[in-house]
Amino acid sequence: MSITGCDNIKSYYECGPCILRQVKEVIDLSCNDEKLKFELMHNCMVHMAENFNQDSQPNKLATEVNQYIKEKTNCEDAYLKQKEMSNEIALSIMAKVRDILKNDDSLETHVKLSIVGNILDFGVYDVNTDFKTLINDNLNRTLSINDIEEFEKALEYHTELLYLADNAGEIVFDKLLMEKIKDYGVNVTVAVKDSPIVNDACMKEAIDAGLGEIAEIVSVGSDSGGIVEEMFSDDFRKVFDESDFIISKGMANYEGLTEMNLENKDVFSLLCSKCNPISKSLSVDVGSFVLKKL
Q1: CB atoms < 10 A from the CB of 289, how many?
Q2: For 147-156, what is each residue's pLDDT tens digit?
Q3: CA 163/CA 272 separation, integer angstroms
Q4: Residues in contact with 136: Cβ distance below 8 Å, sequence separation at least 6, in sequence order
Q5: Does the residue 3 lie in any domain?
Q6: Residue stretches of the chain with pLDDT short of 50
Q7: Do 135 and 66 share a domain, yes or no?
Q8: What is the pTM of this model?
Q9: Rounded to an integer, what distance in angstroms lies between the CA atom of residue 162 and that of residue 260?
Q10: Is 96 within 8 Å of 83 (Cβ atoms)?
């Protein structure tokens, strides 16, 4: 089912080199054996050649090569240091963020600050990116797509929310939005990854960020990059099917949701559009902040 108002996120040609860039980075972070590195890259390229086409789901394809590298290297958490750094960056900016909220405590400001956190993304940027500068430069960005009225109506109507988390570090910003959502009398359930993939938030990162203080934390049941429906655990399938109000953070979750039937669900995507394919699908410029009802 194609989501109303945007293209179904199938693969663009740019998705190929983007996934392979990430493959190289994950391999370098996972092992030092040059022979094994060559074998991993070769086999990932073969998998891409066999499965990368205009109908392939980019986040699913990226998940498959990441899972393969993890299995072959026995490196469970290649981005552990980067995740720790992401949390440090997020926390170092919190004083400035709270000053912004002192001046404007609106729902829209909380949404924008949550999206600022989506910049912390090693799936798009490399490990040498100056994230602190990037975030500081975007603290006052406006929303290019702004469905805030529909979002507030949903908050006033529903009492339960499923929040699809994205990255470590980012969830520190998400916590502020969840606190604001609680003011509407909405109970929040946060979904994180079952085990590490790139710098996505898992249970440990969610607990460390204090999300357990304001929300129930559940696992999607896999180490998928974003939402990959066929990788849901039975438990999470039940949670997702019973959720009629959903917040989706980030591009990979957005990609995955475009493959799903969202009929009778209020779903809102919050993201910073960091690549051409996502920007094309939303008809926005790269770097745009988006709050979109799907």
Answers
A1: 23
A2: 999 999 999 9
A3: 17
A4: 93, 96
A5: no
A6: 1-6
A7: no
A8: 0.93
A9: 16
A10: no
